[in-house]
């Protein structure tokens, strides 16, 4: 009886909690987009699915699944997320085992890859008991290439309807023809907003790659370090961050991961907005309070419009949307023109192919019939025709294996950043990959590595992608098809101990290559602004003395190594007439991308171009 009473009490508590949540939402309490909580009555398991991300995104997005076992028995819960668009299908699988009273927080980093409106459906199942389905409002919407999604991060959620108001006030064009109130004029909506509190920030930096901009409202301070670091990892890999608040600059200068980039040599103001280069990305600071007072309210005489902050935001968005970005799925293909090629995988010439077809038809037809007729046993045609077809198929397969091989061939272009002050490295790489025989585990990227499919995700053929989170991330299915070329753009940021050691050598400098790969080209600018270059290729572990360069040639050669499709003129002010390599930095071309992620594969790089921007300490004794 006690067990039954306990079960009834827990059931009542769960129902009450669900009802209370419903009443709170109905009363207009602020909620995040795509926030749903459901209860399994038999197993007494509560499931909440939500995401703070904007609804119109394309790339990787976080879906949070919160599980609570309110029953008296241990529960094994499987969680599956499905997304099916007109040209793609994604399946994500994970789960958790919960003891009575235990809770679990699952973070699903999911790709929104469809061309039109797609949402994820999350299925939760308890072994031998309940099952439920929740539609999560995250994914692509309309024509995603026209959107500039923005995530605002703050300590306290905004009031109900604020996100739509921000979008309408700051957007410049109307995409979905949504109207408001009695007016028939479409509301501008090309800048969709999401809002995340500190607790809703993802642990996986890849989740940020679907955003054009993150705005951190620092009125109440910056997020805790463990929540802030994945965001900053994304920025160093090419993202764009804006910090707002009366003490925004002071807080940024006190943050250990941000302060090293606020040096004058990295200054990259955009019009009147203060900004700095931060790895391959940018950080802006606007010392005003978020949110801006809206034009609608100002026109009604309720509050003044904060034009400075609104214009700063728009300018930052223009920068994020107009430059080459590590978000390849936004605004078309931003890395167009940098597509590598793998030699030896070209199609058979049309004339040769036609000749082979004619030869096959002659062998299986006239020659085959002539030989069988000589034997006076026409029944042999039932054997000879399949045999000839089988031998031809085996020969073609052998040809492909012999000339294309069974290994995994790649052709890639990459741009990497190595900060030797903080021992961090970031890389963005466009990789064309051909798997003669794809491994069963597919791709196994490290935490924080984002794999964007710039080819298969966007064609008209239906493709299936599978993601398994149990025991580590695995990307299977069309992420790595067998004997078919596919194009990936990979972004990653990681701790790194490799370095180029610089030592004074009279009036010049000597370097030791401790990168693990050969240095093919190398230009150094010291703290005083003087330029030096490497005379010839320097193998890993070797030393060489640099030769002095005059200012004109040094500036030209340094910029040539930085003007890479992925570089976005890193370390220099974009389109500035005096743009040049920052002091105490180097630019290089290396033999291979030593800072990329092979995703658990043994890669055979056939061709590649790899650039590197290195950052040294400005106050190092070597410059004295």
Explain what you see.
The chain has nine helices and 28 strands. By secondary structure, the chain is an alpha+beta fold. Helix 7 runs antiparallel to helix 8 (381-404). The longest helix is centred in the middle third of the chain and has 26 residues, at 350-375. The radius of gyration is 29 Å and the shape is globular. The model is unreliable at 1-33, 179-183, 294-305, 322-337, 455-459 and 567-577 (pLDDT under 50).
Q: Strand content of the residues, in percent?
A: 25-35%
Largest sheet: 9 strands, mixed
| Class by alpha and beta content | alpha+beta
The DSSP helix count reads 9
Rounded to the nearest angstrom, the distance between the terminal CA atoms is: 83 Å
Q: Using the alpha-carbon principal axes, give the shape.
A: globular
**Spatial arrangement of strands, main beta sheet:** 17-20-16-15-28-27-23-24-26
Query: Helical residue percent?
Result: 10-25%
Query: Which consecutive residue ranges, at least 5 long each, have pLDDT under 50?
Result: 1-33, 179-183, 294-305, 322-337, 455-459, 567-577
**Over all CA atoms, what is the radius of gyration?**
29 Å
Q: pLDDT average, as an integer?
A: 79
Number of strands: 28
What key phrases describe this protein's structure?
alpha+beta, six-stranded mixed sheet, nine-stranded mixed sheet, globular, single chain, 624 residues
